[in-house]
Design brief:
Keywords: Kinase, Nucleotide-binding, Transferase
GO molecular function: ATP binding; nucleobase-containing compound kinase activity
Organism: Colletotrichum tanaceti
Helix content: 55-70%
Number of strands: 5
CATH topology of the largest domain: Rossmann fold
Number of domains: 2
Number of helices: 11
Structural class: alpha/beta
Protein name: Uridylate kinase
Largest sheet: 5 strands, parallel
Family: Belongs to the adenylate kinase family.
CATH class of the largest domain: Alpha Beta
CATH architecture of the largest domain: 3-Layer(aba) Sandwich
Oligomer: single chain
Radius of gyration: 26 Å
Length: 280
């Protein structure tokens, strides 16, 4: 039933809450923040990693009551464990090597056998190039035609959302053809570090920073054959002899620096592309 006497007091109570000048008002405001923190944590948990709501964690700093702080710390501890569980099980593997070395073939088999998803950076760029609404289509087309490495900022823009979407489903990611330069590798690590610090609120997901690299090694001669054979049926702009030579030159000029950089990381493997597909 309604209570008219209490109804007349609501404006006064609301003003007291809004001003936050009384001890009761300050306590209620902190309780409200604790409730908001808890609801954000529970929502992320129910969504099973499809959304990351870490931007709400700052609410803990708005509390001063000892009991409320203790409750907030418990929530944040559970939240950190949740974040870890939603990313730790998802591997992220860079698969690099020259044109025609078999990156796509190997990734297709590994993805099938180990429940990974295969992401080809080249395919992402070509999809963006062919999109009528893309602002970068002409630029990407000219870059591919001239075998020029696309700037890290553009590659990251296309790549990160795809990785995040896959990892949110609890699957590992095989990234075919990335990084092609040290600057791309550094840009990836900086992006992951930004998301991990908890200060970046633009992304709904956190990308796992636990990545490894597989380098498929092959001679220039062994790489040329498969690409030239593919060019007879391929619609790709970069599958002709003239562009292929540029691609090989670009790969050779930038490859060693990339190998030197990535080989210093803990998880690094080199395999000959001449081995059987099932071996890898």
């Amino acid at each position: 039933t309604s209570n008219p006497s209490w109804a007349t007091k609501l404006p006064e109570i609301w003003l007291e809450y809004e001003s936050g000048e009384t001890r009761v008002a300050r306590l209620v405001r902190q309780v409200d923040k604790l409730e908001c923190l808890h609801q954000a944590y529970m929502y992320q948990k129910r969504q099973k990693g499809n959304f990351r709501l870490g931007e709400f964690k700052y609410l803990r700093e708005r509390m001063t009551d000892p009991w409320l702080l203790d409750q907030a710390n418990r929530i944040l501890a559970d939240w950190e464990a949740l974040d870890a569980s939603q990313t730790a099980s998802t591997g992220l593997v860079f698969v690099i090597g020259g044109p025609g070395v078999g990156k796509g073939t190997q990734c297709t088999h590994v993805a099938k056998d180990f429940d990974f998803q295969h992401v080809s950076v080249g395919d992402l760029l070509r999809q963006e190039q062919d999109s009528p609404r893309s602002l970068f289509g002409d630029f990407i087309r000219e870059s591919i035609r001239n075998s020029v490495i696309v700037p890290p900022s553009l590659t990251m823009l296309l790549l990160m959302e795809r990785i995040q979407s896959i990892q949110s489903m609890g699957k590992g990611v095989l990234i075919d053809g990335f990084p092609r330069s040290v600057s791309q590798a550094v840009a990836f690590e900086q992006e992951v570090r930004c998301q991990s610090c908890g200060l970046c609120t633009l992304s709904r997901w956190k990308v796992s920073d636990n990545y490894s690299t597989i380098y498929l090694e092959a001679s220039t001669e062994s790489m040329m054959g498969p690409v030239l054979e593919r060019s007879s049926v391929s619609q790709r702009d970069d599958d002709n002899a003239a562009v292929l030579r540029k691609r090989m030159d670009t790969f050779q000029s930038s490859n060693q620096a990339v190998l030197d950089y990535l080989s210093q990381k803990p998880l690094w493997k080199v395999w000959s592309s001449m081995c059987e597909v099932n071996y890898i």
